[in-house]
Amino acid sequence: MSAHVRRGAVADDFTGATDLAGNWTARGLRTSVLLGLPHEQDAAELAEDDAVVVALKTRSAQTDLARDQSVRAGRFLLELGAEQIYDKYCSTFDSTPEGNIGPVADALLELTGARRAVVVPSFPDNGRTVYQGHLFVGSQLLHESPMKDHPLNPMWDSDVTRLLTPQTRHQVGLLPLQVVHSGPDAVRRALDRLEADGHRLIVVDAVSNDDLTIIATATQDEPVVTGGSGLALGLPARPSEPRTLATVPGHRVILSGSASAATQRQVARAREVLPHAQLDVAAYSADPQTEVDRLLGLAQAAWRERPGRPVLIYSVGSPADVAAARHLGEDVPQRIETAFATLATALSDAGATELIVAGGETSGAVLESLGVRRLEVGQQLSPGVSWLAGTTASGRRHNFVLKSGNFGSEDLFVAGWEGLA
Q1: Is 200 domain-assigned?
Q2: What is the C-alpha to C-alpha distance for residues 224 and 373, in angstroms, rounded to an integer?
């Protein structure tokens, strides 16, 4: 295997992977995202990269599966030459009392032989900060934010140490902000003291990018770090020739499977100016092919009218849609994923080459359906959101934006296309 790669990451969903990869790219690292468990032959394609993110779908998977896949991905990255493994999870710490953040972190500690790892969910550019161990979303504590109503992992506590403790075999410590503000040497000394007292996972406060720089400097030689993608912004910038992605001729489509408040605002803005259609989950459940054919037909009609204009297809446009979906059964999120996966393949066959996809689970389902194995990371649109390029199983070149539900500007679905060269 190549030894060029210096940084490797294991991400628990596809949008989180591209979020981290975009931040590494912004710091001057040539970065690729590998979708799904790596194979031996993948190493050759990654030989010119400075950093590689392995994107898994383990956030809500069975814990044993999440742990096993994360270790396999981590081992591949170590063999590729990675000197540090970045355990990437959501900046809002999406998880249950059982995991999977803690079990995966434990497994990567064991894999690398690391004595400890920092826990840094903070991503200030997107409003995620940690103070006195409490996670804030903007000015709200996590448990008071819209995350309290998350359909898969509702977050009812904001204390990261308390959230993590039942998930791990190890003691969880806290390194407060005043120590971070004392600089990298003070952080290292504090980490040493906490480790000596038996703490192997250590939550670190951070409320600004300057804090992230101090933490990244203090932990640059640690075998494992864990957190959201914000910690990547603490790396020193290095000069490099940016990878700029060009438009791929073809049709454009937005597939929005996210129910987040931020995505609802993006959907509302796009509906004002773009042709749009809503996935009818009840109709899809009764007759999947008919509903997919209906949406495909609407998209094709819009493209014939104005070929260069994007088409929006969404599942949730308002809080009322969320409430209505709950009455259709607990497996509605899975049905939405399957519907968008099937629709994405049909749209690609019909000439769609540029896709903005909203929602971590939806993004994973769409790319797996298309058979994309590797993504090149291009220009960043906003914190956590970048243009990507990949090739489908049928050999078609596509551009993608994979957007976490809560990320992106309100006009992303309308204006994001301008980011392509």
Answers
A1: yes
A2: 25
